[in-house]
Amino acid sequence: MVQLYRRKATAIDKITRVRLNPDLDPTAVARSDLEFFIPQLCSFYLGTEITDEEACQLLTVIQQASQINFFFAHRVYFFFNSSIAHIKENSKKNRALEALIMLEEVASVQNDD
Fold first, then answer.
1. 11 and which of 3, 26, 33, 79 could share a cystine (Cβ 3.0–4.6 Å)?
2. 51: Cβ–Cβ under 8 A, 6 or more apart, which residues?
3. Sign of the C-alpha dihedral computed for residues 52, 22, 65 and 17 taken in this order
4. Which letter does DSSP use for residue 83 in this model?
5. Going by C-beta distance under 8 Å and a sequence separation of 6 or more, which residues neighbour residue 85?
């Protein structure tokens, strides 16, 4: 996540290799799964400091993770849906709406299966 905020070119690629769901090992000291960082990922996606290309790449990662894990998709959907009412900038609101549309498409494909 730090590399993402530092705008490292390889950060989004590295995110795709992170464990998606939590490791339930009781000896694990800290969580390092992607699900734990949903608020940061979504906030970064909505941020105006990233380019449209970076936003598209990050949304693709979020979409792929959402297709794999229902709970991940549900938490992302909840984040964007609850954020939309509080967003004042049109660019951020459009990104949130784009993410919600993508998540609805993911849900419709999963329901067809």
1. 3
2. none
3. positive
4. H
5. none
pLDDT 10s digits, 54-100: 889 999 989 988 988 888 899 999 999 998 888 888 888 899 999 99
Torsion angle of the four alpha carbons 104, 71, 35, 78, in this order, in degrees rounded to the nearest 10: 50
Closest CA to 71 of 107, 108, 26, 29: 107
Q: Which two tokens stand for residue 99?
A: 């993410």
Closest CA to 77 of 61, 60, 101, 54: 101
Residue 106, token pair as written in the block:
């993911």
Q: Is 96 exposed, middle or buried (0-12, 13-18, 19+ CB in 10 A)?
A: buried
For the chain, first and last CA: distance in Å?
A: 33
Asked whether 33 and 49 are in contact (CB, 8 A), the reply is no
